[in-house]
Amino acid sequence: MMGLFDLIFRPKEAIKSDNARGNNKPIFYELNNYRPAFTDRKGEIYEDALVRAAIDARARHISKLKVETVGSAQPSLQNKLKLGPNQWQTWSQFLYRTSTILDVHNTAFVVPVFDKSMTITGYYSILPKKCDLVEYKGEIWLRYKFSHGATAAVEFRKCALLTKFQYNDDFFGASNDALDETLDMISIQNQGIKDGVNNAAAYKFMAQVNNFTKADDLKNERVRFSQENLTADAEAGGLLLFPNTYQNIQQIKNAAYAVDAEQTKLIDENVSKYFGVNDKILKNEATSEQLDAFFNGAIEPFAIQFSEAMTKGIFSERERANGSFLIANANRLQYMSATQKVEMVQQLLDRGVMSINEARELFNYAPVEGGDVRTIRGEYKDSEELGGLRNANETE
What we know:
It contains 13 helices and eleven strands. By secondary structure, the chain is an alpha+beta fold. The strands form four sheets. The chain has a four-stranded antiparallel beta sheet, with no helix packed on it. A three-stranded antiparallel beta sheet has the order 4-3-8. The protein is elongated, with a radius of gyration of 32 Å. About 6% of the residues have low confidence.
């Protein structure tokens, strides 16, 4: 029985080393004589709550994109893709994970899934630890190494490669090093809050103790007194008693730690700008105008790149030239408020601009039988029909 790894990467002759041609020199170089390579170095940014919220906000909206295939090429694969990207995920789940991988690593790999006959049956987003480009028998391959040690390769032309912040590398996106200072500020602030709470909750005293001449004796007395009076297991019952050997006893009071509002605002803005979201989007409080701007700046660029990359991986150049492609799109009218949707339907439905089912889709209603017909109010006439009536009147 074939496992997930075998279904994604065919168990055929593997590209195992750089010396596949009998030499120790790298096989494939690109443009300026360097080895294109991707390394997973900054996956830890997803462990920060604020960063994860920003990434999640983008992924949730991207997961609502509708994926469709168009054209006559590869009908069997197109039928499978109508049901989902692969046998394990829905399109919504697939888009969410792909968007998340792209934001965390600035590079996302979508590779084909094969059946036992080595026919492509779908696509899957993978998370390699390292990836590089190599040439094998005259063709460029993406070679992967995963965290569990397994390695595999797949033809580059059959994959979809999505990138962000692409600059130094001709194929892969840059790292998230630019976010390091902001992450450091978040860590320092969180540690300050934690330490402040712990210090404020603890009783601390200082006192002068007589009749102790050895350092070890002072240390032992301090430990004894703390355990008997200041720990959670102490049986003092709220009453603190001490012998007359203690003098000048003073409680050390820690000021409550207050988070710097300006610093917090700066951190929030840095993260929001980096991932193209804002506070309203994060809290699901955005207006229709703000959602439309978010779509233009954060959702649509992903949809375009995803559609083009997947089309290139699925269909050959000839198939693309003959009109076959994959597209991820969104009904932008969904971002309108309920009042705006009602006004839109009132203006466009009886003019034949949209059908009943298209109007129902705006409100997330299921289509109805016969609802794809477009209707026009009786007082509206086709311009060609009006021209014919005018000519008939002139003849009379």
